[in-house]
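INFO  loader      accepted 1 record
INFO  loader      residues=262
INFO  predictor   begin
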Amino acid sequence: MGLSGWVGPLPSFAAPPVVEVAVGIEFLQLPGLGPVQLVRLHDLWRDAFPKIQEQPALPPASFSTGPIGFQFQVSHLPAIRIWMMSDEEDELLQVQNDRLLLNWRRTPGDDRQYPRYDHLREVYERVLAEFRERVTASSAGIFRPQTAVVTYVNRFAFEAGENLKDAIGVLNSEWNAIPNASPEVRIAAAVAEPGDPGSVVGELVATATSDASHGYLEVVTRINITESDGDVFRRLDIAHEYCVTGFEKLTTLKMHERWGKE
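INFO  predictor   done
INFO  writer      dumping tokens
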């Protein structure tokens, strides 16, 4: 995919420690998209995602750096979310009345690398087009995209004597020595329009944790989609670029070598 011009050349790793990726958008609640209509959406994607489960709805999300606008929504619809999974359960569609997400997940015993953003984007582009067509035909409501969201979850093993400071570059040797504090690091950064640092249009949030043998780094980027910006996928590409660049900037050269930075 072509770069958006917001970030610049993207880093690439031969063996990135990615165990899950999610791409998608959040939109204003669709009042006509109730539980029955959500389940019926499975007819669109049954071939690629034959398995279906009901899950609790994800709560509304908001920027910790402050939203650009204020959206007030009241819904009396039951709060549910539908999972639709591939046979291998490594690809997952999540749909509820205010968002549509596509996940890739590493399943137990599967040592394949993740299929890269371009693949997920291609699948999601087709799914979103079918979803929008169904919403329009069923009079479920007016489809108004609000936010493009990309999430990367990374899991990496420690070698002897290592801990999270060996992977996360902003930590010093005593990062986990704060009395009675949970060893979790959370970093948030505002995303602005190029050349206009005061125009906050999104955020990047990175959360790092660890156990005795592994470190975990989740990077989430959310970019607002304005009414004047009709290209949802351009905003999704921007979110992806910030996730990848954020991962590189937060992690150490030592780990870059281990993960085969190209």
